[in-house]
Amino acid sequence: MLYLNENDINQIGINWKEIIAVIHNACNTMAKEDFAQPVKPYLRYRNRKNRIIAMPGFLGGETELAGIKWIASFPDNLEKGIRRAHSVTILNDAGTGQPLSIINTPLISGIRTAAVSGLMLQLWLQQHGREPVKVGITGMGPIGRLHAGMLQTLLGEHLEVLKVYDIRPCGTVVNELPHPDKVHICYSWQEAFADADVFITCTVSDEPYINLPPKPCSLHLNVSLRDYDASWIRYADMIIVDDWEEVCRENTDIERMHLHYGLQQEHVYNIVSLAGGSYADLLKNAGAIMFNPMGMSVFDIAVAGHFVNEAKQNAVGTILD
């Protein structure tokens, strides 16, 4: 069995275009119904804001792997100088069930998260052209930093400005980005939100606060899922999810929109259908678009499989008996 840790993943490196293609291929495989993905259980005890989530899944097609991600999220860890998230991913041979690899790092989960956002951004750009794009991000922790790196790679010279905001000082973080000269540090989320063509939430907020109207025809990647006031539904011309059953629970913005404003599954669109080309005209003609990704285990399996293949080709990692 191949063991990979964070140093191994960093040694392999992140090729965002390749990994976004992995997510796109996973969507195509899902469209053929060659996958299995049970609803993930949440383990909670004592402090209810903490959670450990089991994410099992199988993905056929080019991936042909089963596996599970076991991910813990303890927000108060940040005050202790400890990472909020910790995770382990195990991959199994789809035909025999034999364990093939264990990946011990939350980095793999963060890469998946940013790559899914990257696919949504790519689909949006295909319909909205490549004119200069203004991006805003609230939250510059590990997920925010990965998104910033992905955006700078995907947009390249078409990125006009990246406005970032965090409740903690983030100057050191910004200086570590590939192109810090294009990054502007804001002093409020409102400043980052204003005039953003693309706005991304990467916080650990458990209470909504975004209540301002968006820029017309903007894309909102609601990665942290609990930042938008439920009344924001009146601004969203198109709402996209990865999995309705997953995202309409756990006090997400989607669940609050469902409970307080009657949002139903038939009112939203799915990224799997969008990736396959469905609703392209609607995506082009929509005003403000809101994407809410709860996180799908099959995407974790696909991305983990990609890194295991890269590790084998480059002799990275440790073989365990």
From TrEMBL:
What's the superkingdom here? Bacteria
Q: Name one GO cellular component term.
A: cytoplasm
Signal peptide location = none
Xref: Pfam families: OCD_Mu_crystall (PF02423)
Name assigned to this protein? 2,3-diaminopropionate biosynthesis protein SbnB
Organism whose genome encodes this protein: Chitinophaga solisilvae
